[in-house]
Amino acid sequence: MTTTTLLAAYPGRYFAAWNGRDLDAVAPILADAFHWTDPLLPAPLEHLDAAHGFFTGSWGAFPDLRFELIGEPLVDEAAARVAQEWRMLGTHSGEFPPLPVTGKPFDVTGTDVFTVDEDGRATVVRAYYDALGLMRQLGLA
């Protein structure tokens, strides 16, 4: 598999883990050492246990959470990076401390940028989206 093909395939694997609610799919998409930032995380994630907690916490708080990919991934082979625009939809119907359950739906667009190693696992995940807009849709801002 070429580097470009490996990079282009990564977002599909990553979002399939999210949409499939498949914790077994998480380890193969994250390197042993990674750095994951998200606007709503209080600190970067850097361990598989923390990533598992983020996935399961998100699925519990937003049981109908899903990502729809927008367009094709943008590949930067020289930097081993790939970006994917997405649309995230769901309803806040479960606990996600410290946020109170609102029962409100949300629809947010964003982009994730991944740095991917030669084994097809992310060493860096950076999520970019309007966190304040999300909080407003949930009635929390």
Automatic annotation (TrEMBL):
UniProt record, GO biological process: polyketide metabolic process
A Pfam family annotated for this UniProt entry: SnoaL
SUPFAM superfamilies: NTF2-like (SSF54427)
Protein name stated in the entry: Polyketide cyclase
